Amino acid sequence: QVTYLGKIPTTGMQFLSGCTEKPVIELWKKHTLAREDIYPANALLEIRPFQVWLHHLDLKGEATVHMDTFQVARIAYCTADHNISPNIFAWVYREINDDLSYQMDCHAVECESKLEAKKLAHAMMEAFKKTFHSMKSDGRIHRNNSSEEVSHEFESDDG
């Protein structure tokens, strides 16, 4: 269970260590200004190969019908080590608009601990690997790189 801090558009096409710091700071400020920190976890984040599900919870902590789905193949970056709070896990997602243009959004969740945030980063890294391996074996991805070289592109930066 996590507290979903929200999403914010982010710019750039190269996602390297530290690229989520500024968006996470903005999301954290909005979260604390809204005094939402007095509420318990409001979501359940489930990371699987191909998809990440963010189940929204009601005030009783029960799952609602509202769920956000993220395709693993469209996640450009994730990290679990932020200066503002080590308990935050964030990912950059390529959202495709109706006109087929796209935007990059940074999503962030606050976990119960730094360890839980790191576990999510490692789970995301495994989901990347499984998704990429499956897409490559299905012929949906054609690369000349060895699988070891490609796996480095999908490593999460968890500090």
TrEMBL record:
The keyword Cytoplasm applies. PROSITE patterns: PID. InterPro entries: PH-like_dom_sf, PID1, PID1_PTB, PTB/PI_dom. The keyword Cytoplasm applies. Its main location: cytoplasm. Residues 72-132 form the PID domain. Coiled coil: none annotated. Residues 138-159 are annotated as: Disordered. This is PTB-containing, cubilin and LRP1-interacting protein.
